[in-house]
Design goal:
The chain is an alpha+beta fold. The chain contains 4 helices and 8 strands.
């Protein structure tokens, strides 16, 4: 059966349309992250159950927290993820990730144990109505005051406050073995 040029023109338009749609969806997912996105941005329904009274701890304690054996992309908030922590720590280095978040490598003073802290990209569409948006903007602006070349930050001690979050360990820079993170960071202060 022989097809007409008009058939091929329509087929090409359909293929182009599908390609554009697929690229839009993949851009949105990659642009602002997908794994446990609602939990890590405090957009999940359980976020209202978080106690926002900061508990003081340190990196060496958080890396000992028990984590579930399997972290799936859709795992709801659980256990220590309902807690808000204050860390006084140093920042070994940072990266700006593809999704625009700042990925910080946190350490206790004089220790080599590390864990991750995340400063969200406040321009992501899913954060427009987030009750913590102003905190995300303020934290990001404060952090950017201390950025140095080569992914370093000014030396000294930082007081960070944020929610506990467990991520699947997949080779992230500075990740703790249990995947614990301070994510999102809601308060950022340099104090020494």
């Amino acid at each position: 059966m022989r097809q007409t040029p008009r058939f091929y023109a329509k087929l090409i338009l359909v293929i182009i349309g599908l390609t554009v749609l697929c690229s839009l969806f993949s851009f949105q997912e990659e642009g602002c992250g997908v794994d446990r996105r609602l939990v890590k941005t405090l957009n999940d329904t359980d976020a209202k159950k978080i106690s926002f009274t900061a508990m003081r701890t340190d990196v060496s304690d958080m890396v000992k927290f028990k984590c579930p054996e399997k972290i799936s992309r859709t795992l709801p908030r659980f256990g220590k993820e309902f807690n808000f922590y204050q860390l006084n720590c140093t920042i070994k280095e940072y990266r700006k990730e593809e999704d625009g978040d700042y990925h910080l490598v946190l350490q206790d003073a004089g220790d080599t144990t590390t864990m991750v802290g995340e400063i969200l990209n406040p321009t992501c569409d899913d954060l427009k109505n987030n009750p913590h948006l102003q905190d995300y903007i303020k934290v990001r602006a404060e952090f950017e005051k201390y950025i140095l070349p080569k992914f370093k930050v000014k030396g000294g001690y930082y007081k960070l406050k944020g929610v506990c979050f467990f991520d699947k360990v997949h080779g992230q820079l500075g990740a703790a073995k249990n995947g614990v993170e301070l994510h999102p960071i809601l308060s950022f202060t340099k104090f020494k």
